[in-house]
Fold this sequence. Notes:
The complex is a heterodimer. Chain A is an alpha+beta fold. Chain A has helices spanning 9-14, 48-56, 58-70; strands at 18-30, 33-45. Chain A is elongated. Chain B has one domain: Jelly Rolls, CATH 2.60.120. Chain B is globular, with a radius of gyration of 20 Å. In chain B, strands 1, 3, 4, 7, 12, 13, 14 and 17 form an eight-stranded antiparallel β-sheet that branches. The interface between A and B is medium-sized, with 15 and 18 residues.
Amino acid sequence: MGRKRIVTEDDLNNGKSIASVFETDKATRVDGVVTQWDVVNVRADIVSTQWDAALASADDALVLVQWIESKRST
Amino acid sequence: MSRIPGNISNTKTGIRRRKHFGWRDFDPLAANVTAEDPNSFLASVANTGGNIVATFATTCANDTEYLEDFAVFVIPLTNNYGEPINFNEPFSLLTQIEFISATGDHSGSNEPELAFGLGICENATDIDNASTNKWIGQGLSQGNSTNSQHSMLQGKSYGGSSSARSYTSNMGANTGLCHARYFVGPAVGTDGDSEAVGVVGTAGDYSDNSYAKDTSVSYDAYDIAQDNSVFESDGQVYLFAWIGSYGNTWDFSGGGTAPVLTCRLRYMVQHDPTGWGGSGS
């Protein structure tokens, strides 16, 4: 019998973890040379047990990242 | 004149009267304004009942996304009593950037994308000189004119003698009201350190729609991450308005109509000239 999954989307949605995601376009200009890059801005409070589980398991990590991404508004 | 204690005619004696209450409209035509438009973004600017009415130039060949390059209007920042605010003193600054209306051709290709906002800097002139001036600013840029959709645009000093900017993805319809809180010090000027200067902006709809918060961008934080880019001055803080185009060049001399932007830029200040304190003893 395998380990009970700690990080599920339902757990995240029903728990105290919160997240918001949006994008910004960043740039610097140094001596007239512009360097541009895009950033995904993630602001998240993740319940510690869920964070620790995600660090310990690739499957849980994927669930967590996909859940954060689901918070992106368009 | 009666000098009877408590006589209402003498109630103002010895009382320090505040000069400013709450929000102040930024007036680009005020007597103490230094105006610069080195890249000729605007043909004219007017103040109509507290609203700024900016007519863009017929042509503009300068394609820039950096707010210090735009038309700027600079004033010394003062507190509620009209006293100067210095960088080595604690102050809080809240700004409100409000899109009112726009006419003419804008937000398309080869048309200006209307960008406007406020910021603070340490020099009264030559604002776009990144070697001698330091700044941080925040405002709006109208990426989609059909639904009055805006992005938040921020700019700052970078690398000691350069600049940087940040532009959020286009927010929802009617995101024409933007608020920003500035964080300055105490580690600025003589004691300057990174992460001692920042601005956080939020945006949404107007009062008649209950200030409905934009759902796509929660809040956008932007700070100065390098020691050599924070304010170096202990002296006067300057507030500046900026109006220009986020990218694009245009030429309406052969057709089309230069846009006219009407916006309102306001700010509110709290300040303690006695200093930060905090000796730990």
